[in-house]
Write a structure and sequence with these properties.
eight-stranded parallel β-sheet, 39% helix, 378 residues, Ribosomal Protein S8, Chain: A, domain 1, alpha/beta, TIM Barrel, 2 domains, three-stranded antiparallel β-sheet
Length: 378
């Protein structure tokens, strides 16, 4: 009896795997598409659209899951999960070009999805809190001189962007007035401008007034953890100054977001929520290329939710916007009594997972440790 040896291939570089077994080099550039498999979730199709899509998928050897009553037309709408190799999905897209009910557009969307190829290296966003009550370093940099020293350290340690905030949005924190935020932010922004510091600055604020005053002083990025829910004028201000904006998913406000947050489908709700916010921003004049998204670790999420986001962060890449993730020192580490350096070590360990997945930005307190991580992994 022959002893066969089998191993699952999880390498995303199927061209390399085919090359290693001696496959015909002249055909590898096409053949890999037969071995790379994708599952796509497609939302809100009519019964007619779903039935045609399912039959089209079956015709090329792929499959499409729909609501069980789709075939009887007892449901008006259904989500679908379309699964197949790249080659099969391309064939499905081509066949949909000849179908009615708007399915030609769906075919184009499938083709666009298959063209996505994430190659960007991860960048580090360093945190500078000008607060007295932030969850990990509240008060450490509240004094101007201490803030300047930490700013210089973040730059020296290799931060690609520095995110400066004057309002803590930790669970159960209260809002800070616009005037108080600006009293903390303006001096450090004037110092940055006076000293010709060219590291891009992001301002962590939910207030359009604070955002506008900071943009006037040279800020290039606004980080709105409320995703425009706190201040509806924020998208217009961002568009007015042609700034970049980080749109974060948050369920509720800091005062109530951790009061038993629940989701029917965590990643669907985050994905569709961010999609709607992207469309809102664009409708207000924000350039799509200026939008960064953040699923909001710890903002209306349980510990289990947070780890699910980390494991599935690459599902958000389909939104075609850079993705930022902030794990640093947060409660998902489950070590409230540990010192910050210990928390930083565990934060780096978790960041390893998302760096492997090519997340665009990691927002961190300890830039130096995370810079070493990138040097090791990239």
């Amino acid at each position: 009896m022959h002893d066969f040896v089998l191993k699952e291939v999880l390498n995303t570089n199927m061209e390399k795997e085919l090359q290693d077994i001696g496959f015909d080099k002249s055909y590898i550039h096409e053949a890999w598409k037969k071995f790379a498999y994708k599952n796509l979730k497609i939302y809100d199709l009519s019964a007619a659209q779903a039935n045609i899509l399912k039959q089209t998928a079956i015709s090329v050897g792929a499959d499409c899951a729909t609501h069980r009553e789709t075939i009887t037309a007892k449901v008006e709408k259904t989500d679908c999960i379309l699964g197949g190799s790249y080659s099969q999905l391309k064939k499905i897209a081509a066949k949909l070009a000849m179908q009615p009910f708007g399915l030609k557009c769906l075919g184009k969307e499938i083709n666009n999805f298959l063209l996505q190829n994430k190659t960007n290296s991860t960048q580090i966003v360093g945190i500078l809190n000008l607060t007295q009550n932030s969850f990990s370093d509240g008060g450490e940099f509240y004094v101007f001189e201490d803030a300047v020293k930490h700013l210089e350290k973040l730059i020296k340690d290799g931060a690609d962007i520095i995110d400066i905030g004057a309002e803590s949005t930790k669970p159960y924190s209260m809002s800070v007035s616009d005037d108080e935020q600006l009293a903390r932010l303006v001096p450090i922004l004037e110092y940055i401008r006076k000293n010709n510091i060219d590291t891009p600055i992001s301002i962590d604020t939910r207030s359009s007034k604070v955002a506008e005053e900071c943009l006037k002083l040279g800020t290039k990025i606004i980080n709105d953890v409320s995703g425009f829910d706190y201040d509806e004028k924020m998208p217009e201000v961002v568009a007015k100054y042609d700034a970049k904006v980080i749109i974060q998913h948050s369920k509720g406000t800091p005062e109530n977001m951790q009061d038993k947050p629940e989701y029917d489908n965590l990643m669907d709700e985050i994905y569709l929520g961010l999609k709607n916010k992207i469309e809102l921003a664009v409708s207000k004049g924000v350039k799509r290329e200026n939008i960064i998204i953040d699923p909001g670790i710890g903002f209306g999420k349980t510990r289990e939710d947070n780890f699910e986001i980390i494991k599935r962060i690459d599902e958000l890449y389909s939104l075609n916007c850079p993705v930022m993730l902030g794990i640093s020192r947060k409660s998902l580490l489950n070590m409230p009594d540990a010192d910050n350096y210990t928390k930083d070590i565990y934060s780096v360990a978790l960041n390893t997972l998302v760096v492997y997945k090519k997340v665009d930005f990691i927002r961190v307190h300890n830039v130096e440790l995370n810079k070493r991580l990138l040097e090791v992994l990239i």
